[in-house]
Amino acid sequence: MVSVGLWGQRRKSFLQEHRPTFYNELLLEGRLNCYLVDINEQTQARYDLLLEQMKEHKAESPWEWISLMNNIAACTREDVNAEIILA
């Protein structure tokens, strides 16, 4: 059995709270785990792509680079969360 992962767990929580009918349908049909694994893979791929695109910005110093990377990671998490997890 494949692990659902962080993004899949977030989607599961969202479905339980905001889309209980869809969640129960997936659960009763035995498709929930496959759905969550797929969501996790899609979201991780999107996250990696956005992160790589944002990393292309250059920083003047190592400290600036660290700060920039932290900001980029936070923004990327928010973007994929809004695009996929909470959609």
Could you characterize the architecture of this molecule?
With 87 residues, the chain is an all-alpha fold. Helix content is 83%, strand content 0%. It has helices spanning 5-18, 20-29, 32-55, 62-85. Helix 1 crosses helix 2 (20-29) and helix 3 runs antiparallel to helix 4 (62-85). The chain is elongated. The model has no long low-confidence stretch (mean pLDDT 90).
Strand-helix topology:
Blueprint: H1 5-18, H2 20-29, H3 32-55, H4 62-85
Helix pairs in contact: 1-2, 1-3, 3-4
Q: What oligomeric state best describes the polypeptide chains here?
A: single chain
- Which residues sit in consecutive blocks of at least 5 with pLDDT less than 50? none
| Mean of residue pLDDT values | 90
| Measured distance between first and last alpha carbons | 26 Å
Brief overview:
The chain is mainly alpha-helical and 87 residues long.
Looking at this protein, list some descriptive labels.
elongated; single chain; mainly alpha; 87 residues
